[in-house]
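hey team, just a heads up i'm posting the complex here instead of the shared drive bc the drive is being weird again. everything in one block, sequence lines first with there labels, then the predicted structure for the whole assembly after. its two chains so it's a bit long, scroll down
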Amino acid sequence: MCGIVGLFLKDKTLEPRLGEMLTEMLITMSDRGPDSAGIAVYGTDRDGQAKLTLQAAEPSQFEGLAEEIGNEVGATIEQRVIDTHAVLGLPQDKLSAARQAIKRLRPDIRVMSAGDIIEIYKEVGLPGDVAKRFDIPKLTGSHGIGHTRMATESAVTTLGAHPFSTGADQCLVHNGSLSNHNALRRQLAREGIEVETQNDTEVAAAYLTWKMQQGHTLGEALEAGLADLDGFYTFVVGTKDGFGVVRDPIACKPAVMAETDQYVAFGSEYRALVNLPGIEDARVWEPEPATVYFWSH
Amino acid sequence: MQTYDLEADGLRGLNATLQGASGNETGWEVVNPRGSHAIAVGLDAPLDVTVKGSTGYYCAGMNQQATVRVAGNVGPGVAENMMSGTVIVEGDASQYAGATGHGGLLVIKGNASSRCGISMKGIDIVVGGNVGHMSAFMGQKGHLVVCGDAGDALGDSIYEAKLFVRGSVKSLGADCIEKEMRPEHVEKLTELLEKAGIDADPSEFKRYGSARKLYNFKVDNAY
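-- predicted structure starts here --
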């Protein structure tokens, strides 16, 4: 079991409340996943600027990091440390050089997400505690995805928590379990795609990255996944301007969606959606099996 | 009519109250369900319960005698293992509605998703809209009436449950075939539609059931 929540805002006046609404939804799904929790939020686009979300075992590992990377890549880097995570703001054209520099300077620091606007926060612990640690209710943005984890396929660790980033401004969360992830991990390794953990979802994320590197759109990559990913899954994916949902053909992992003029919302259960504005009059439905749904701004 | 506020007074209190209800006060209204699980389960008295809003998993499970109405949608496993009584859902139902039900009537006015009536053992289910894939899987007894369309693998590995579908069937499951609609079937279907309060013409339905080819071991099927 795991819990998924997602919110894609159509009404800009709700954007200041994105973090608060997602947190409330996430906490409702604590019963489905008390091991760990994570959230991906898509904030405001700043022209020419990119973002990196980093994770370290200890916040002290971030000390002086921005200056050191800045010196290496020749740019001014902003750094905001929040508990075990840090969000770096940097010029877009320095993003890949900065990632290389981090690998050299601080090999223990992990990149949670990279892109223009995405930020990913995830940790072990109850969803409410995780949201509090990272001050998630204060986050603003146009869309976001959250996950509460009850681990089945790999250990309860920060890196085993969701969301997994699948490329620039992309992320994936998963409820279910994949049965062919070991074979797929070996296949991806031969294609030069590395995964860091023993987690099945990370393999699915890497699979989508691989497909998109070959020129597929996210929608096409998800369609291809229906044939290549064996097991149970409800996936929710995020992109810079969009939000998608796909369930395996058996569709035993629950999913409920709601749409109004103001938003599209996803919940593993209807409980997660009950406090959303205007939910009483929303169109509420269960996404069909083996069908890719996608919304974009 | 008595009102129970689920948000204020909690789920255990609701089920304990309904399970212990006696006397003439049989009408109950449950407000603020907010998608909670296991609402009005294990009832065994001729109560009339209306849930004002959508529910989560296993609403009205194991029902006996009572009538439970849901003015909203229901999550997975509504009326699971129902023995008798009536459960009416005004909206849609999630997966495995009426699973393993032994008796009683389940009416879903909207659509039901996958595995509706899985392993049904005598329950009657009437769905106003469509049903998802694998509905009536291993259905042993009872009736499933679908006024809309049925998804893939309808009636897979079915025993003696009788299926009536008005719309299209995406595919039939193993050992499920279309069967002749005889007068007794039209009569039963008319009765079920009437009981469910759904206006549909019985002559537009087709009947499906078991080819009874999986009942016995056949050496030709062995590997």
